[in-house]
């Protein structure tokens, strides 16, 4: 899965039939507050299958995508009718590399400690040797002048500069595998397929964490929209970061003492009468959270201020847990704004491809069951006709399991996986040993998020 601006690309194939072409679906993402559908299909590209199972995709610019398929790198025009590449280069490697792009440059992570940088015509610019990298990248992201490398089973994400020197490591005790990373002012890491931990960019401080449905890749769009993709179901989900942050804070505030509430209210320079009213209330923590929302102090859109405010909360809780007073004393300079009102919809596409792509949006108002929706678009066979379906519904209790108690990460250990790539990868269903209670590949059902029933291989 790749995102650039308002474009989304998802690649994969049907692992149940070896003779099926692989595909890349391209979509245009609509504004989150728009009355139009969540996304609009742009085009689909079909590719002949060869010995390689996996394909990586990255959006180079508004008109071009780059794919890595085995040892071949191709650049395609997005809307061209044929599947002939504009540019091709052979990496002469024996393992599927990972890829990403930035401002006309293409970064290819090889099955070693090297990253090759190409221009948009696939002319080699340079090779970056990453110090201390002992496994090939499972996911690679470029942000600013830094490379972020995930190697799957290694218990950290490593941030490198363009000379290959380590800048930071992002770790999370209790989790075993970091599979995907996305950066947009803050750092978002997918741990153990089911958990996302948010870090500050500058000093690797953990700001918050939450659970997601079983996923293999995550990408952030416009700061407040988190996209995840699940390989076995072909589903791409969108989560509102405002919603996730709010639910996380509700769990955090639920364990706060009156002293914590008083310190936090003073930190944000509440009027004295408001502070007294809050600490004298039986529901002081709930009242404090409402007051923070009313004053617009928490929102995902302004990442620097959100980092500062969540960091302040973490310091307060750390001081409380250690039996000492909070170290928070100075006020936050910027107030943030809370947004509401996004809706929950479903879009399903099932054309000539053997599998489907689905985009789902979580409602930001979990107490309200959505009874009306904007429908969904579907292309049937080669037809471009549209039909509407009733949207999925969701109640508040459906998402309660997504938010674990703060600072209590759950550990999920998985065997070492060597496969990586496309919407499907690693062992085939026939090669993978069945586990007790596991479902047939491709059969999706809702279940509690206590860990996957088998370790899915990585997709892109």
UniProtKB/TrEMBL annotation:
Residues 321-387, 402-460 are annotated as: Disordered. Residues 375-385 have a biased composition (Low complexity). This is Uncharacterized protein. Residues 324-335 have a biased composition (Polar residues). It comes from Stichopus japonicus (Sea cucumber).
């Amino acid at each position: 899965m790749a995102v650039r601006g308002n474009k989304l690309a998802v690649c994969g194939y049907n692992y149940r039939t070896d003779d099926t072409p692989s595909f890349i679906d391209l979509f245009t993402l609509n504004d989150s507050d728009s009355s139009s559908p969540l996304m609009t299909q742009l085009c689909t590209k079909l590719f002949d299958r060869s010995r390689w199972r996996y394909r990586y995709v990255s959006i180079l610019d508004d008109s071009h995508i780059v794919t890595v398929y085995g040892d071949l790198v191709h650049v395609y025009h997005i809307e061209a009718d044929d599947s002939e590449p504009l540019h091709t280069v052979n990496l002469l490697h024996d393992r599927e590399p990972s890829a990403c792009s930035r401002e006309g440059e293409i970064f290819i992570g090889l099955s070693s400690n090297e990253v090759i940088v190409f221009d948009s015509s696939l002319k080699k610019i340079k090779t970056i040797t990453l110090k201390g990298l002992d496994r090939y990248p499972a996911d690679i992201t470029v942000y600013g002048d830094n490379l972020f490398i995930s190697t799957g089973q290694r218990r950290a994400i490593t941030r490198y500069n363009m000379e290959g020197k380590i800048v930071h490591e992002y770790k999370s005790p209790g989790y075993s595998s970091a599979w995907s990373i996305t950066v947009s002012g803050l750092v978002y890491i997918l741990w153990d397929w089911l958990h996302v931990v948010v870090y500050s960019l500058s000093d690797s401080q953990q700001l918050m964490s939450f659970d997601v449905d079983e996923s293999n890749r995550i990408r952030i769009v416009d700061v407040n929209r988190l996209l995840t993709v699940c390989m076995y179901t072909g589903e791409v989900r969108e989560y509102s970061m405002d919603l996730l942050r709010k639910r996380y804070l509700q769990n955090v505030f639920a364990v706060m003492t009156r002293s914590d509430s008083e310190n936090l209210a003073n930190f944000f320079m509440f009027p004295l009468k408001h502070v007294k009213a809050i600490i004298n209330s039986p529901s002081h923590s709930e009242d404090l959270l409402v007051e923070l929302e009313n004053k617009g102090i928490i929102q995902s859109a302004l990442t620097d201020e959100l980092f500062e405010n969540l960091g302040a909360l973490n310091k307060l809780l750390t001081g409380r847990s250690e039996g000492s007073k909070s170290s928070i004393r100075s006020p936050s300079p910027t107030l943030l704004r809370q947004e509401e009102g996004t809706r929950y919809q479903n879009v399903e596409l099932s054309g000539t491809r053997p599998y489907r792509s689905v985009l789902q949006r979580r409602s930001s108002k979990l107490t309200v069951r959505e009874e009306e929706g904007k429908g969904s678009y579907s292309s049937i066979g080669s037809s471009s006709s549209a039909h509407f379906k009733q949207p999925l519904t969701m109640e508040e209790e459906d998402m309660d399991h997504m938010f674990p108690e703060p600072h209590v990460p759950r550990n999920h250990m998985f065997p070492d996986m060597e496969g990586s790539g496309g919407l499907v990868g690693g062992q085939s269903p026939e090669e993978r040993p069945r586990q007790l209670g596991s479902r047939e590949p491709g059969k999706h059902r809702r279940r509690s998020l206590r860990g996957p029933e088998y370790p899915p291989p990585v997709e892109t």
